[in-house]
Amino acid sequence: MKILFVTSEIFPLIKTGGLADVSGALPAALQALEQDVRLLIPGYTQVLDKLESKRTVASFAVFPGQPEIRLLSAKMPHTGVPVYVLDAPQYFCRVEGPYQYELGGDWPDNAMRFGMLSKVAALLGSAASPIAWQADIVHCNDWQTGLAPAYLQLTPGKHAKTVMTVHNIAFQGNFDSDWLVPLDLPQSCFDMHGVEFHGYLSFLKAGLHYADRIVTVSPTYAHEIQTTEMGYGMQGLLTVRNGDVSGILNGIDEEEWNPATDKYLAAQYDNNDLAPKAECKLALQQSLGLEANAQAPLFGVVSRLAYQKGLDLLLECLPKLLDGGAQLALLGSGEHELERRYQQLAQRYPGRVSVTVRFDEGLSHRIMAGADIFLMPSRFEPCGLNQLYGMRYGTPPVVRRTGGLADSVIDAKAANGTGFVFDEADSNALYKAVLRAIDSFRNDKKFQRIQLNGMQRDVGWRSSAQRYLDLYRTII
Ligand code: ADP
Hints:
Elements: E1 2-6, H1 18-32, E2 36-42, H2 45-50, E3 55-60, E4 69-75, E5 82-87, H3 89-92, H4 110-124, E6 137-141, H5 147-153, E7 161-166, E8 174-175, E9 196-197, E10 200-202, H6 203-210, E11 213-216, H7 219-224, H8 235-240, E12 245-247, H9 276-288, E13 298-305, H10 311-323, E14 327-334, H11 336-348, E15 353-356, H12 361-370, E16 373-376, H13 386-392, E17 397-400, H14 403-408, E18 420-422, H15 427-441, H16 444-455, H17 462-475
Bound molecules: adenosine-5'-diphosphate (ADP).
């Protein structure tokens, strides 16, 4: 099967969150299932810099009257998955983030940037493909690719089938309707049964309306997005399309996230010998200026600092936990107010709290290995990857029972428990769950059972990639 996987970020080329990890790993898993899977990504500076042996395979104008862009072909590092790069420096070669500039504002031409990405994806799935390859399936990811199913449906003739994966329904790509003309969309599709969403041109809505199938990244989230509380306005459409919506839990890249081979760690370990994990903890404490104390429960957090992640709830109960001797190593960036409050906490608790506000791949691995307990009190979580990494690294997660967290973490009350689960999105419920985690931590035998349960779980991509493949087959 010829599959085009189109995405706006991909590990290890460019990453702001879990989408990049999924884009790096799922296509490789599909390739291992002997499919002809190829990637399409924007030619950001980082992407052009990191990809070797690029060659131009086509030059063409994406929209009428625009200058020509180049389509480059290369191979992904490590996995060798073929990748097409949309090389349009004017749109993608910018020093700051892929979606936003440094101060947190969206790039004002995001509609054009990701409209182009969607249009090129659609071309590669149609008879008008600019190269000698036409996809059978165009697999879209999040709003940045949401117009591709619309372009394909609006194209006469035989074309690819489409799957739209929703990694987070809160991000929708809603733009002024003035963009219809530059994006070469007919006025007729600006309708409730089309790309229109409350008066805006919505990329995500377009994807949800026109795609042949909708997938989200966990079964529980597939139900949640059909409710008023968690559908972010898309619940009506999703309920109507209920039969086309399914949930497939993300896996993890088991080579990249493997404590037995992880090059970022001070010591490697596996489920046969957890002892070197203590070295990772000590090294982490020393490098972050925390008191070197094996007995102090060390919490790890690696996260976007956003309302979604519930880290304001954590702030409310942390002082009690820190006063009791616990430590916190937090890595994250995002909302400035949360950054500020966590930095204040670090000042108040020197030696107990370390807050690093930046993106740091190596430190994220070191926290995963060096912490005793990983905290993820999300208000909603489509899938979440960090709890999976935590389990793989013998660092049981404390999570709220929502979305992919509910689907992947088994509470320690069960014999096969892998973490600590709480229900209400409030700081007291979180506090109680963390206390349970600390209790277990103080009981070596019990804690080790929870660690090993997590480390032995199958969290790889194989079975989920097979599910995607089965889904492609049903729609072709
Ligand atoms: P989301 O995609 O909602 O941000 P996920 O848990 O699905 O959340 O994935 C987040 C990914 O981004 C993980 O791989 C996590 O380790 C990584 N990450 C988040 N913030 C940082 C950071 N500041 N530095 C390094 N990695 C980070």
